[in-house]
Amino acid sequence: PGRLDLKKLYSLCKDYGYKSSVTTTWHFPEDYFGKFCRSSGLLQSVFLLLIDAFSAVTNPFKFGNAAICYLQKDGDL
Description:
The chain is of the alpha+beta class and 77 residues long. It has three helices and two strands, in the order H-E-H-H-E. A two-stranded antiparallel sheet has the order 1-2. The longest helix has 18 residues, at 41-58. The model has no long low-confidence stretch (mean pLDDT 84).
């Protein structure tokens, strides 16, 4: 699938009457884990924790390579 700019998403939500909440995250391609971690479970765990920490730090700035979008129609419970 293609990418959708967050500004465009916010604009579409406003135009069609949706409230939105976005959480940005960083994802790392799964096949790269083998290259960087070399089958070390401990190294992989540390690497995933670093990615999660980096995601938490950059989320307030809405900066990441993936986003989780929550949409709710205005007026719905």
